């Protein structure tokens, strides 16, 4: 029995001395609970909207006040015409717009009915439906408030328009998200084992003593996966259009250009992982855990980033797939050009250059 206790104590010492095992045992569950606890939420809060108030009367001001009090909305700004609303939607600053027509209170007083227009960005159909339900509930609350004071059967009719996706197809949201997830995982996973495999097999020394410069070795490792990823991208586009009926509204050339930039960024991440690890198992583990969870949680295609705490919102900015997802939706769904996504393109280009530079620097001869 003493021998058993001695072996148990020995194993405890082994576990407690290995910080990697302790991190896996305690750090990973804590991180997952925190991330999933804040990210996995169907409730939508602090969504930015705009209000176009043509009426400027007591009724319209009361509705705006009820929107401001609600935790679900944050009024980005007041606009004065529908052209400005359209531009704000294209910039990606808002998810919903409320238009209150002229003579709103006057129509309620004399005709006992009035209309309010609601425009929602339906590129994410689930989010658009939730937001329109929230706004409709607030409008109905104001209607009950008026009926309670006047005892007159008043009726406010919300006229809802779904922008970019009037049929509320789910493919408009999950296809760009799946594209970001698949391309990132495949590119990172494949390249992350490319160099470390040479280390394990002992053939890296042969490559290093060859006349080929180490920089060219890295380029040679990345180019085949770049070509295969472009073919994979073409297949994804073809399936999206033919099987899922997803229409590409923007420039196909721009779409491929942005996708190739994202593929290069993913390949740079894989090369960096491959250079800093010593075994294929560790490289694959880092690739899967390090890329899968951030892409699922912090990209925005499954859970709105705006609902998360500020710390997670800032953390999402270092996830390349977030910027690719924004650009893909802007081109494919909204039909926008390069002028609408140049900031995201610049950020992704900067990430690619930095990661590729780091992967070369970490390549040890």
Poorly predicted parts: none
Radius of gyration, in angstroms, nearest whole number = 27 Å
Number of domains: 2
The H/E string reads HHEHEHEHEHEHHHHHHHHH
Strand order of the largest sheet: 2-1-3-4-5
Head-to-tail CA distance between termini: 52 Å
Number of strands: 5
**Global morphology:** elongated
Describe the structure.
The chain contains 15 helices and five strands. It is an alpha/beta fold and 365 residues long. It folds into two domains: 47-163, abc type-2 transporter like fold, CATH 3.40.1710; 171-361, no CATH class. It has a five-stranded mixed sheet with strand order 2-1-3-4-5, with helices on both faces. The longest helix has 29 residues, at 214-242. It is elongated and about 90 Å long. The model has no long low-confidence stretch (mean pLDDT 82).
Features:
alpha/beta; 65% helix; abc type-2 transporter like fold; 15 helices; 365 residues; five-stranded mixed beta sheet; elongated; 2 domains
């Amino acid at each position: 029995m003493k021998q058993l206790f001695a072996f148990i104590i020995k194993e405890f010492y082994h576990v407690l001395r290995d910080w990697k095992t302790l991190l896996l045992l305690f750090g990973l569950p804590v991180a997952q609970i925190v991330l999933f606890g804040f990210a996995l939420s169907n409730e939508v809060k602090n969504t930015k909207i705009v209000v176009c108030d043509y009426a400027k009367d007591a009724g319209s001001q009361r509705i705006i006040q009820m929107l401001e009090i609600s935790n679900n909305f944050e009024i980005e700004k007041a606009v004065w015409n529908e052209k400005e609303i359209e531009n704000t939607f294209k910039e990606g600053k808002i998810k919903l717009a409320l238009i209150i027509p002229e003579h709103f209170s006057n129509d309620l007083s004399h005709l006992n009915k009035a209309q309010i227009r609601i425009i929602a960005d339906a590129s994410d159909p689930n989010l658009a439906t939730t937001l329109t339900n929230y706004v409709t509930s607030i409008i109905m609350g104001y209607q009950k408030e008026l009926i309670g004071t006047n005892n007159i059967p008043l009726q406010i009719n919300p006229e809802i328009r779904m922008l970019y996706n009037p049929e509320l197809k789910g493919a408009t949201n999950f296809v760009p998200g799946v594209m970001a997830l698949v391309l990132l995982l495949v590119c990172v996973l494949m390249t992350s084992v490319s160099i470390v495999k040479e280390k394990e097999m002992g053939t890296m020394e042969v490559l290093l003593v060859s006349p080929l410069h180490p920089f060219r070795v890295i380029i040679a490792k990345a180019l085949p996966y770049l070509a295969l990823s472009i073919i994979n991208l073409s297949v994804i586009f073809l399936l999206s259009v033919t099987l899922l009926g997803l229409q590409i509204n923007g420039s196909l050339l721009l779409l491929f250009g942005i996708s190739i930039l994202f593929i290069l960024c993913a390949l740079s991440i894989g090369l960096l992982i491959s250079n800093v690890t010593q075994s294929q198992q560790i490289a694959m583990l880092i690739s899967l855990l390090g890329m899968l969870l951030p892409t699922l949680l912090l990209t925005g295609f499954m859970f709105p980033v705006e609902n998360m705490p500020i710390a997670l919102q800032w953390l999402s900015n270092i996830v390349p797939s977030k910027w690719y997802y924004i650009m893909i939706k802007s081109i494919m769904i909204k039909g926008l050009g390069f002028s609408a996504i140049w900031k995201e393109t610049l950020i992704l280009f900067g990430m690619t250059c930095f990661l590729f530079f780091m992967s070369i620097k970490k390549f040890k001869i």
